[in-house]
Design brief:
- There is one protein chain.
- Helices cover 23% and strands 41% of the residues.
- It is built from five helices and 18 strands.
- A five-stranded mixed beta sheet has the order 2-11-10-4-8, with helices on one face. It has a four-stranded antiparallel beta sheet with strand order 1-3-9-7.
- The chain crosses the membrane at residues 314-335.
Amino acid sequence: MIRKDITLGGVMAVLTLLLSLVGTPTQASADNGLALGVNPQLPANQVDPKHGYFDLQVKPDAKQTLVVALSNGTKAPIDVSTSVNTAKTNQAMQIEYGPNKLKSDHSLQYDLPSLLKGPKKVTIPARTTKEVRYELTVPKTAFRGSLAGGITFTVDHQTDGADQQKKTGVLNRYSYVVGVVLREDTHTKVKPKLTMPKVKAGSYNARNAILATLVNDQPTFIKQLSTRAVVTKRDSDKKIIDTKQKGQNIAPNSRFTYALGLGDNKKLDPGKYRLQLTVKNQDYTWHLKRDFTITDAQAKQLNKHDVSIERPNYLMIILVLLVLGGLLALLIYLIKKNREQKRDIETLRNK
């Protein structure tokens, strides 16, 4: 039940975010049967009015109020949690604008939650639209490139939600994300820089993987990427991993772990390895290479916790051995019994 709750909320968040970033307004109408409608009120300093998220050109030390209209189209009040988060990059090389435990790179000058302040909780009466205000304070010192993040809205409670949970055992929670991008100079492009300082063996989704630490230490997005990753033994050309992916994106000033899965039922062997990673888009290409070592202890520990690796069913083996042992004992007993009967018959005949 919990799985369904989380999945549905996640789908709504991702859907809303994707719509906002491709130029469709981040607007979810409460009349469509959903509990919450989200509509950012785009200000005069919006760079592109066609964008459904806050894409703002700002000035140093400026103060501004950002307004998001929240609509409740249901017959009961709803409680909404809100949070401001800095954009980060996840293990799939995609940008996270909502709440997460990911870390930014130390090169990040300003964290969006320190600049944008607003309420943590909002209650919206039934069939009402309420404006939620966030106070933006631009840093006094001019900054290069983009500061990026998002405002997340999550429906925590509906009066009729408790009844729904009692009847079905499920309480759906919906989340929506409105992107926020701040820029001072909209004409000068910042050149991105991508490095790979570390590679190691690890686990991803409870399966063996190679984990590459990637760093974009510049205040700019790196979008529409395609990647090819090849892992080999250091003294061999045999490819242990050879994967290609498209449509990946990296947030400004982000340090993240890029996970390369080995696949199901694949054990890690100790040894010396090499990862060659090519990352490119229309404007830039990076050829990254890093050697790494997997020790006996690391391989043993990771293989032990890989849920996809098939392991001997010792209980079944013991049961089979017991059955075979029992059959063998029975066979020996029958043979012995048969011989005794034959001896008895011979003895009777001789008498």
